[in-house]
Amino acid sequence: KNSCLCLSIFTGTFISLSTQSCITKWFDRDDPNGNGDYELLADLLSTNPGEICPSPIAIEAQTISVFSGHVYNPTSGFACVNANQAGVLCADYKVRFTCPEDWCSKCRTPWFDRDNPSGLGDYETLSLTLIKYPLRVCAQPIAIEVATISGTPVLPPGNNFQVYDPLQGFVCVNGACQDYRVRFTCPLSFCKTSMFL
After folding, report:
1. Which residues are CB-neighbours of 144 under 8 A, at least 6 positions away?
2. pLDDT band for position 132 (50/70/90)?
3. Element containing residue 180 per DSSP (H, E)
4. Rg, C-alpha atoms of the chain
5. Among 74, 84, 12, which Cα is nearest to 39's?
6. Left, alpha or beta for 89 (phi > 0: left; psi -120 to 50: alpha)?
7. What span, in angstroms and rounded, lies between the C-alpha atoms of 144 and 130?
8. Are 47 and 110 in contact, with CB atoms under 8 Å apart?
9. Are 146 and 113 in contact (CB under 8 A)?
10. Which tens digit of pLDDT belongs to each residue from 30-78?
11. pTM above 0.70?
């Protein structure tokens, strides 16, 4: 598939690091067709109720096969329109959103620091967190936050971040990794049944 990296970057307001830590999982609702690939917020809210905040403050879009994010318009979503391409068709894209802090805080786990950085990196994966802290995190988180142990927010994309996703957790690879911690946002139903949050 051809990559479409030709769209403009849209920003409405400056967003500080402290408010950019509530990041959803990736969504891929549409497949490229004769018109292009449309990952529009209204459609995603309809097909994924409760998994995306209604007013995101940032959006990332990337092709399914490439790990590099680009920011587009969070209020409407992302669209690659075939008619706007120079003789190539749009690739298959996925998007994820950054939500306001208060959306994540409705059902947020404690911070977890399961691993310490080693020669291989720092592995704060969801699967290993579920094993070490049973019943304290849901199996299907809807957002993730990552910070250093000192509290500095860590945002994607990053050169050393092999994984940054609510359903997988966070992985930083190579010897330059700091010590990281993660926390997850879970569906409200998890908080209603959990005594640990």
Report:
1. 23, 164, 165, 166, 169, 170, 182, 183, 184, 185
2. very high
3. strand 180-185
4. 17
5. 74
6. beta
7. 14
8. no
9. no
10. 888 888 888 999 999 999 888 898 989 888 888 876 544 455 678 888 8
11. no
Q: Which two tokens stand for residue 76?
A: 């409407």
Residue 68 CB contacts under 8 Å (≥ 6 apart), including other chains: 62, 157
Q: How far apart are CA 104 and CA 16, in angstroms?
A: 16
The pair of structure tokens assigned to 105 is 């805080």
What are the CA-CA distances from residue 34 to residues 3, 89, 129, 188 (Å)? Answer: 16, 8, 43, 39
What is the 3-state secondary structure of 51-114? CCCCCCCEEEEEECCCCCCEECECCCEEEEEHHHCCCCCCCCEEEEEEECHHHHHHHECCCECC
Domain ranges of the chain: 17-99, 104-193
